[in-house]
Design goal:
heterodimer; A: 234 residues; mainly beta; Protocatechuate 3,4-Dioxygenase, subunit A; 3 helices; 6% helix; B: mainly beta; 5-stranded mixed beta sheet; 4-stranded antiparallel beta sheet; 1 helix; binds fe (iii) ion
């Protein structure tokens, strides 16, 4: 079997450590031993490939999944999924979930005293196109409280899950909103040492995608691990 | 042009909302060739508590060690209908269970072979990045020459090897932290 080009290791400081003690649940859920560094084998260089099966017609429009329209500020979130070599990641699965406009998840474990919206489930999925583009229509989620520390509130955010071409490129992340006053107080947003990397989680208001009389536009590009130029040593 | 990969963030407590549509406890549908195994286990945190709000993703080759992915030169020969991916939640008791077939040997670095194994990713609230481990099979002679197991401290290797617990049943617990901590990998 020919040697395969491996994926780049994360750039210093741009990914969180497992233990980030201001985010309290990391204290008992993070490994205490160093991870074991292994070569990237065929197992890690392959990964699941998804097609359209299971993806429904309104799965990219969270405002059309029920009989009525959800409450809240309608928004379009779009962007490109690229690799670290700036090449588009085409036909990859993007999964999205979020709270409603009042900051409540349609989830039995969410006991926040904010209203559920019968017209909003808060989850979506789609495949990127040939140019790596994705686009969801949704409503802007509200901030919500959590019990991490005194008076803790999560800034408004969308959860994103992506696969990319290999087991190595799996990514789960969160997208935030520009100008959110809660960002400096949030240990999850602040878990990454590198300030520029952190700030890339903040979407940009996108006037060109904003639709008159209809919805605000936000742009959020997502970068998955890219390959090294040369095959790995083995 | 060179970019840096987007920062990982936790799935949080409400992951099932967006992710459970892909849940399956049958990684290899019934009828797929290979030795069928049922695998069950629990996820345990650093205080010994069970973790009820986690999710596993499993990735594996077919019974002859071929991955359903274009990077595998033998992908065209993968058994039809075999994908090798599964997503499994933990229940209120922190337990997970799924069924699959034991994969074949998989090519390793430098022209060698890897023993049969499953790749397992763990996602949960409190994990800012997902954890990656491997499940190996008990009583498997190839384990002794597996190039990845060889990189693991011998005293910790058994955290990667499931226990036989009856007819075609394997048990494998994942300990996130502590003296019996499971081995997790980076690449
Ligand atoms: Fe959230």
């Amino acid at each position: 079997m020919p040697e395969l080009a491996g994926y780049r290791r994360p750039f210093w400081g741009t990914q969180p450590e497992y233990l980030h003690s201001t985010y309290v649940s990391t204290r008992i859920r993070s490994p205490s031993r160093p991870l074991v560094l292994i070569p990237q084998t065929l197992s890690e260089l392959t990964g699941p490939v998804f097609g359209q099966d299971g993806i429904g017609r309104n799965d990219d429009d969270l405002t059309r999944q029920h009989d009525g329209a959800p409450l809240g500020e309608r928004m379009i979130v779009h962007g490109r999924v690229l690799d670290e070599n700036a090449r588009p990641v085409a036909r990859t699965l993007v999964e999205l979930w979020q709270a409603n406009a009042a900051g409540r998840y349609h989830h039995q474990r969410d006991q926040h005293d904010a209203p559920l919206d019968p017209n909003f489930s808060g989850c979506g999925r789609m495949l990127t196109d040939e140019a790596g583009r994705y686009r969801f229509v949704t409503v802007k989620p509200g901030a919500y409280p959590w019990r991490n520390h005194h008076n803790a509130w999560r800034p408004a955010h969308l959860h994103f899950s992506l696969f990319g071409p290999a087991f190595m490129t799996r990514l789960v992340t969160q997208m935030y909103f520009p100008g959110d006053p809660l960002l400096p107080y949030d240990p999850i947003f602040n878990c990454t040492a590198d300030e520029k990397a952190r700030n890339r989680l903040i979407s940009q208001f996108d006037w060109e995608v904003t639709m008159p009389e209809h919805a605000l536009g936000y742009r959020f590009d997502i970068v998955l691990h890219g390959r090294n130029a040369t095959p790995m040593e083995s | 042009m060179s970019l840096q990969a987007t920062t990982s963030q936790t799935v949080g407590p409400y992951l099932h909302l967006g992710l459970s549509w892909l849940n399956t406890d049958e990684i290899a549908p019934p009828g797929m060739a290979g030795r069928r195994v049922r695998i069950s286990g629990r996820i345990i945190d650093g205080e010994g508590a069970l973790v009820p709000d986690a999710m596993l993703e499993i990735w594996q080759a077919d019974h002859r060690g071929r991955f359903a992915h274009p990077e595998d030169a033998r992908a065209g020969e993968v058994e039809p209908g075999f994908r090798g991916f599964g997503r499994v939640p933990t229940d209120a008791e922190g337990a997970f269970r799924f069924q699959t077939i034991k994969p074949g040997r998989v090519p390793g670095p430098g022209g060698g072979w890897q023993a049969p194994h499953l790749l397992v990713s763990i996602f949960a609230r409190g994990l800012l990045k997902h954890l990656v481990s491997r499940l190996y099979f008990p009583d498997e002679p190839d384990n002794a020459s597996d190039p990845i197991l060889a990189l693991v401290d011998p005293e910790r290797r058994d955290t990667l090897i499931a226990r036989a617990a009856g007819d075609e049943l394997l048990e494998w617990d994942i300990v996130l932290q502590g003296p019996r901590e499971t081995v997790f990998f980076e690449f």
